[in-house]
Design goal:
The protein has 124 residues and is mainly β. The chain contains no helices and 11 strands. The radius of gyration is 13 Å and the shape is globular. The termini are far apart.
Length: 124
Amino acid sequence: QVQLVESGGGLVQAGGSLRLSCVLSGDTLIRYTMGWFRQAPGKERGFVAAINWNSGAANYADPVKGRFTISRDNDKSTVYLQMTSLNAEDTAVYYCAATTFISPTSTLDRYRYWGQGTQVTVSS
């Protein structure tokens, strides 16, 4: 059974940085395209970034382009989201997700496995 566990969230001042991690267990990470999504209070869960199995392709939502970087270490079964220049609009619960879709899709429904989420709060 595939499980995803996120970590690295917390409280940070505007302009600061955080790195989120997501560890996959129960299968081999290399089989999956991995994505990060986020959900702010009162809003729907939305796409942040995704990366394909060999890091050959990545996809970012417009609001995070140039500020966030997704990466993965298949040997460590871990996916990362490096977040810089954080602002209050980045405050949300961040979720890691896995899909067998080949390309780094932004479509939420294509992701089969989800983590429990980690809270990121940016103070202004």
